[in-house]
From TrEMBL:
Keywords: Membrane, Transmembrane, Transmembrane helix. The keyword Transmembrane applies. This is Putative membrane protein. PANTHER family: DUF819 DOMAIN-CONTAINING PROTEIN (PTHR34289:SF8), PROTEIN, PUTATIVE (DUF819)-RELATED (PTHR34289). The keyword Zinc does not apply. The chain crosses the membrane at residues 6-23, 30-49, 69-88, 95-116, 155-180, 209-229, 241-260, 272-293, 299-319, 326-347, 353-375. InterPro entries: DUF819.
Length: 383
């Protein structure tokens, strides 16, 4: 059993390093079906369930303190790539489609919560809010919502498993829909001409990551995280969700957006460092999970399917009423539910020249996912 806090940090960081290297270099098909970040959760939870991690506060406190700094630093670094000027260039029709997509997922999560409330844990709304954060943003937003609402680690595990399994099924459905694009567009009587203005080659960042850039990003993001934590702790609590952690995330989000509009947003390496920090955050959360409590997982899986059924119905009605083509609906859906990893791929399946739309949709999710998740949590906590 590990009873040294620093050794526990070393084990979690070591697992993160191994999985990140394997994910990027091994080329295993396994990671297509079980994302490395999910595997990170499962491995750390398995180690805790096996009794490897000590239960004393002195053992767990150092890793928790590291996570408290890693989370806001990660959010800041992720938003360094969020260029608001490029997002606004999408135009009103695409932005409206994205907004309705996020709203439909919010409605879906509330419907699922009410439908399965009797079978769920009293604090299940926190896990569902974290799931909503992921399905309107990504894993980083999911971790942020979990930390703000303090969703129990075991219940958060249900949300993470649901996220992985249901999302994978949804991605297959969306990919399969490409062949029905013409039929769908005839059904909605969509005019696709406005998409011509958004066609262009996908942008690739080929700038080399340098040692000074890495050091500057790490130290700078940690300094900003410390400042935001200090200010956040001095702010008043508002409702169920606006606590000191929420204020901290809000502050680093604003600072990240401001920095993204400056030359700082073009420093290479921010997304890669943020990914490393995400693995540390997920590892800390998983280190408090116990697989013996996974008996409720099927209920969450059914709830997750319910969310996407409601989402699909709303989007179908929206597309018919507004004469929207399948491309916008499908890419907006996957950008919400899947994030940056899948939105450009789905966009490319429709038209390779429209890949930038998928990228920009995913960036919107990185910005908004946490706050949509918290909004859903606030609604569910009051029901």
């Amino acid at each position: 059993m590990i009873t040294n806090g620093l050794l526990m940090i070393a084990v979690v960081c070591g697992l993160a390093a191994i999985l990140l290297v394997l994910d990027k270099t091994a080329g295993w098909k396994f990671f297509r079906y079980v994302p490395a970040v999910v595997l990170m959760y499962l491995l750390c939870a398995a180690l805790n369930s096996a009794g490897l991690f000590g239960t004393e506060d002195a053992t767990r406190e150092p890793l928790k303190n590291l996570k408290d700094f890693a989370l806001p630093a990660m959010i800041f670094l992720l938003l360094l790539g969020c260029d608001l000027r490029r997002i606004l260039s999408l135009g009103p029709k695409l932005l409206l489609t994205y907004a309705v997509t996020s709203l439909s997922l919010l409605v879906g999560i509330v419907v699922a919560f009410l439908a399965f409330r009797a079978a769920l844990d009293p604090e299940a709304w926190k896990a569902l809010a974290a799931l909503l954060g992921s399905w309107t943003g990504g894993s980083a937003n999911m971790a942020a919502v979990q930390d703000i609402l303090q969703a129990p680690e075991n219940i958060f595990g249900y949300a993470l498993i649901t996220d992985t399994i249901v999302y994978s099924l949804w991605l297959m459905i969306v990919f399969s829909s490409v062949m029905f694009s013409d039929r769908f567009n005839r059904f909605t009587r969509a005019d696709t001409s406005y998409l011509n203005a958004h066609m262009g080659a996908a942008e690739h960042d080929d700038r080399p990551i340098t040692v000074p850039a890495v050091i500057g990003l790490i130290l700078g993001s940690l300094l900003i995280a410390w400042g935001a934590i200090t200010v956040g702790e001095a702010m008043p609590e508002v409702g169920e969700v606006m606590n000191s952690t929420a204020w901290t995330i809000l502050l680093v989000s604003v600072l990240g957006l401001i920095a993204a509009q400056t030359p700082l947003g073009r420093i290479p390496g921010s997304q890669q460092i943020a990914t490393v920090l995400l693995f540390v955050v997920i590892g800390q959360i998983a280190s408090g999970s116990d697989f013996s409590a996974l008996t409720e997982a099927p209920v969450y899986l059914v709830a997750g399917v319910t969310v996407l059924v409601v989402h699909a119905v709303i989007m179908l009605i929206y597309a018919k009423l507004t004469r929207t083509e399948l491309f916008s609906v499908a890419v907006a859906s996957v950008a919400n539910v899947g994030g940056i990893a899948s939105a450009p791929v789905v966009a490319g399946a429709f038209n390779r020249q429209l890949v930038p739309v998928g990228v920009l949709f995913a960036l919107i999710g990185s910005l908004m996912g946490t706050w949509i998740g918290l909004l859903g949590g606030q609604i569910m906590s009051g029901l």
